[in-house]
Amino acid sequence: MTIKGFIFDLDGVIVDTASHHFAAWQILAEDLGVPFDEKDNELLKGVSRVDSLEFILNKGGLVLDSQTKLRLMEKKNAHYLSLAGSIGVNDALPGIVEFIQELKSLGMQVALGSSSKNAHQILGQLELTDAFNAIVDGNRITLSKPDPEVFMLGARLMGLTPSECLVFEDAKAGVEAAIDGGFQVVGVGNEIELSDADAIIDDFEEMNWERMQNLLSNS
Ligand code: B16
Ligand code: MG
Question: Residue 198 catalytic?
C-alpha cells in the first residue's frame, strides 16, 4: 500500500521534552516516598498523565482519593510547564522540520499523534502548529497509548486508512499502539525498547523520504 500520510509523536520525536516529564514525575514521586528512576520513566513515555500517576501510586502501594490525584496531577503539570517554558523555535530536534517540509512538498499529509494535553502549547512554542494537516493530542482521546485511538483518529482526520499512514514513535507504548492499529511504524531511538517497529532510526538528521523508503524496504 502506498504511504500518503505521516503521523508524528511529539515528545521524543519532534522535541525532547522527556527529561522535563521525568524531572517533574521524579519530584512528585519523591514527595510521595516512591522510588522512581529512568527505567520507570522509560515505561511512561507516551503514557497519559493519569495513567503515569497510577503507575507511581501502584509502585508505592499507595491508594489516594480522586481529589488528591487531581491535585497531584496539577502540581506535576505546573512543574512540567515551568521546565518546558524555555522551549523555543530552535528546539525542534535536528532534521525534523526539514523532513516534514519535504513530505509536504511531495503532496503528503502530516498529522500529530500525541498523548500530551500540552501538545498545542509546545507546538506553538516551536511555531509548528501550521505545519500539520491534523493535530490529535491528549485532549481528543479517551484511551492513551498503547491503545491505537490517537493514531486511528489522526488517520481518519487525514481521510486515510491506517495502512496508508506511517507512524513515528519514540516510546514502546507508541510502537505497540501503531502496530495494534494496523500502521507501519518507525521507532526513533532505542533499538532494544523499540525492536517491534518496522524500522528504527537514531534521529531525523540527514533524513529524507527516499532514505526512509529504503530503510523500510530493507527491514
Ligand atoms: P501531558 P507523546 C506523552 O507525549 C509523553 O511521552 C508522556 O511522558 C506524557 O506523560 C504524556 O504525553 C502526557 O503528557 O501530561 O503533557 O498531558 O510522547 O505521546 O507526545
Ligand atoms: Mg513520545
Answer: no
Q: Give the ligand at the shortest distance from the Cα of 55.
A: 1
DSSP string, 40-53: HHHHHTT--HHHHH
Largest CA distance in the chain: 52
Per the CB < 8 A criterion, the answer to whether 86 and 8 are in contact is no
Check residue 219 and give its pLDDT. 78
Cell of 216: 523500510
- Residue 48 Cβ inside 6 Å of ligand 1? The answer reads yes
Give the number of whichever ligand sits closest to the CA of residue 175.
2
Q: Are 219 and 199 in contact (CB under 8 A)?
A: yes
User: Does 9 participate in catalysis according to the annotation?
Assistant: yes
Whether the Cβ atoms of residue 104 and residue 131 lie closer than 8 Å to each other: yes
Rg, C-alpha atoms of the chain: 17
- What kind and span of H or E run contains 67? helix 66-84
Q: What is the pTM assigned to this prediction?
A: 0.95
pLDDT tens digits for range 31-70? 999 999 999 999 999 999 999 999 999 999 999 999 999 9
Query: What CA–CA distances, in Å, run from 190 to 17, 97, 100, 172, 198?
Result: 16, 21, 22, 9, 13
Instruction: Specify the pLDDT at position 21.
Output: 96
In single-letter form, the type of residue at position 135 comes to I
What is the whole-number distance in angstroms between the Cα of residue 162 and the centre of ligand 1? 22
Please write the tens of the pLDDT for every residue from 79-111.
Answer: 999 999 999 999 999 999 999 999 999 999 999
